[in-house]
Amino acid sequence: MTSKNKRLNTILLVLTATVLNLLVMAVLYFALVILYGRFGAPYIPPEYGAAILVGLFLVVAAFTYFGYYRFMRMLAVRYDMERYFDPVFPKGKPRNGTQ
């Protein structure tokens, strides 16, 4: 596989994964907000509402991060990622003497 194809595959993977990650985050966040509004809000003082919404966002961000990490590890075990994708952050010295 040529370097251009691998680079394009890498760009498409990153874009697709980012869009899917944002979509999952949005769905989970709104589901948790609805659950909080239905079951938690009547029992918690209103002045804590903003802090709880921020906390819910942080929980969703952490959950999706670890889910994304596990998914990528599963793909790496199943497929030879180096065969289809260029590294996002190459290791070693820069090519052609540039910095």
Describe the structure.
This protein has 99 residues and is mainly α. It has three helices and no strands. It has helices at 3-40, 49-78, 81-84. It is elongated. The chain starts with a helix and ends in a 15-residue tail after the last helix.
Short description:
The protein has 99 residues and is mostly helical. It has helices at residues 3-40, 49-78, 81-84.
Please specify the SSE layout and strand pairing.
Layout: H1 3-40, H2 49-78, H3 81-84
Helix pairs in contact: 1-2
What series of H and E elements makes up the topology?
A: HHH
Largest sheet: none
| Number of β-strand runs | 0
General shape: elongated
Binned strand content: under 5%
* Radius of gyration over C-alpha positions, nearest whole angstrom: 20 Å
- H/I helix tally: 3
Structural class: mainly alpha
Query: pLDDT average, as an integer?
Result: 88
Main attributes?
99 residues; mainly alpha; 3 helices; elongated
